[in-house]
Design brief:
Trna Endonuclease, Chain: A, domain 1
């Protein structure tokens, strides 16, 4: 990855954290088999399946651009930050998927472990003041299958 691409990726990720934490919303692209994903850029040297990276954007216009350029059959869909933090990311972590933030239409962007992204978002929310998400009581069922039911937007 070139220095310019790395700087752009880091800036896009920073923008994702800032805007998602402030607006308490983010965007994905729903496609026929769930939500848009790409293969990880990490090289698999062990003969295993390539890791999926589920893609999310902080602004509808960014998601729409990626949808037009890379997922024309998909549709842009709003996700609440609460669902993302406490349903999507734990389910993705359990499934071994990664999260991609504010990827370009050419499918270039940051790849993060879901729990690291969750921590980064919660920290950003704590720095910026009070948020509805942080005031909602969280009840954990202890049933890992329950969180997997919600992965990738499934109900």
């Amino acid at each position: 990855m070139s220095m310019l691409t790395r700087e752009m990726t880091e800036e896009n990720h920073r923008r994702f954290i800032e805007r998602a934490a402030t607006s308490e919303a983010l965007w994905g692209i729903r496609v026929a088999n769930g939500f848009a994903y790409a293969e990880s850029n990490a090289v698999d040297r062990g003969g295993h399946d390539v890791t999926p990276v589920l893609l999310f954007w902080s602004d509808r216009k960014y998601a729409a651009r990626a949808q037009r350029e890379s997922y024309p059959e998909g549709r842009v869909e709003l996700l609440t930050l609460f669902d993302f933090l406490f349903r999507w990311l734990p389910g993705m972590e359990a499934d071994g998927a990664l999260a991609g933030t504010n990827w370009t239409g050419d499918l270039i962007g940051a790849e993060l472990k879901p729990i690291a992204l969750q921590e980064e978002l919660l920290n950003a929310m704590g720095r910026s003041g009070t948020h509805r998400v942080l005031r909602v009581p969280l009840v954990l069922s202890g049933d890992p299958a329950r969180s997997r039911r919600h992965r990738y937007g499934g109900r």
